[in-house]
């Protein structure tokens, strides 16, 4: 197994330039003094070791298990080397002061007061050891030119340290900003699942999700479009948050030009206001639709490009789960033959109406029950396939005349129920009269068992009741009773006079 690659700590990288400058400048100082006092190579040759140390220090930090800790040791070793070398230079006053201050400042900046005190101690100990080996000599002054050289080097070094410190602070600031942005992204993604779970349909899911993202990123605009896979000109669902109508229209026009993009985020041309648009496809994560997530950013945001796919993935997963949930719910609530609500859903809706009546006595509901005539006869003579066709024809007729607020359900084999959640008996009677008057004019073409086609008139028995005339718990039973009374009356022979027709009571 290959060892993991270690990253050199930013502290070791930041100190490369100042250290190289400091030791090269000190070597220059050494050469100058050697020339002035005529010591020649006896001082210059050992001074060349100063040129080697910056490279050795970086190698030690780069190859250490903990490069930050290794660089702390390097800074202390700088103090040792400089303390020893100041004694070699006979404690040239200006150099000793500026070099010593530089060592103290370096350790103070990176390690605090404790590191600075350790650095001062090492500098003094190294200077004393050097004095013991070379003899103690104090050189307060060499020449004006050397003083100028030393002052210039000190100024450049301290300015370099200041620039490095500024750069490090900026980098730390950017890192903090990135962490805050990542935290916002994390919380937005974490809460997005809960927002999606509370949605009751796809429209509310998309709207609530985008409003949630806009709350976390108030300076941004969001839009999502779900389109038919084979008919890209048809947008089935759409939602926007934080966008103007002008932006929304522009995005709709741009949809036509991005259909070839399937996987990666795309940066679109800037808006007239200089804002940036990004788009991330969601189609690969959706089974029923092609999806597109648009984001408008106030300025270029490379971090946003990186996390845009996370938003798209989360939103697509929530949408897909909701679609599957609604499909399963629809299957559980619907009758397989007619597509109407089934008995279980009707009973739940009826209980809600009963509870509403108990809580709000003035809020009535009504029930209309229908039983398809001749279904058993059709099944016996033409087969159950023909009977199913008859049931489906009645269902289609009822669907055309029911309002969205009405609950139309297939209650049993040949029974239908219409629940009027907030209406009185008059509404149920109007619907019953409409059905009684116009349903017989409808014709149902059935395929008989022997392969022939036959037209049948549609007839039903009806019964209605309302909570305005009976206790809420007894409304359904009363409607059922009246329906069977109607069926019985319709089966009796007509005993009226010529031209008369018996009209059953509802």
Explain what this protein looks like in three dimensions.
The protein has 506 residues and is α+β, with helices and mostly antiparallel strands. It is built from 15 helices and eleven strands. It has helices at residues 10-14, 16-37, 41-47, 49-63, 67-88, 93-134, 144-198, 202-216, 245-254, 302-333, 343-359, 375-382, 384-401, 425-438, 475-491; strands spanning 221-227, 235-241, 266-268, 276-281, 290-297, 366-372, 407-410, 415-420, 443-447, 453-457, 460-466. Strands 2-1-5-4-3 form a five-stranded antiparallel β-sheet. It has a four-stranded antiparallel β-sheet with strand order 7-8-6-11, with helices on both faces. A two-stranded antiparallel ribbon has the order 9-10. The longest helix is centred in the middle third of the chain and has 55 residues, at 144-198. It is rod-shaped. The protein starts with 9 loop residues before the first helix and ends in a 15-residue tail after the last helix. Mean pLDDT is 84; it is low at 495-506.
Structural features:
alpha+beta; four-stranded antiparallel β-sheet; 59% helix; 506 residues; single chain
Give the SSE layout.
Elements: H1 10-14, H2 16-37, H3 41-47, H4 49-63, H5 67-88, H6 93-134, H7 144-198, H8 202-216, E1 221-227, E2 235-241, H9 245-254, E3 266-268, E4 276-281, E5 290-297, H10 302-333, H11 343-359, E6 366-372, H12 375-382, H13 384-401, E7 407-410, E8 415-420, H14 425-438, E9 443-447, E10 453-457, E11 460-466, H15 475-491
Antiparallel strand pairs: 1-2, 1-5, 3-4, 4-5, 6-8, 6-11, 7-8, 9-10
Helix pairs in contact: 2-3, 2-4, 2-7, 4-5, 5-6, 6-7, 7-8, 7-10, 8-10, 12-13
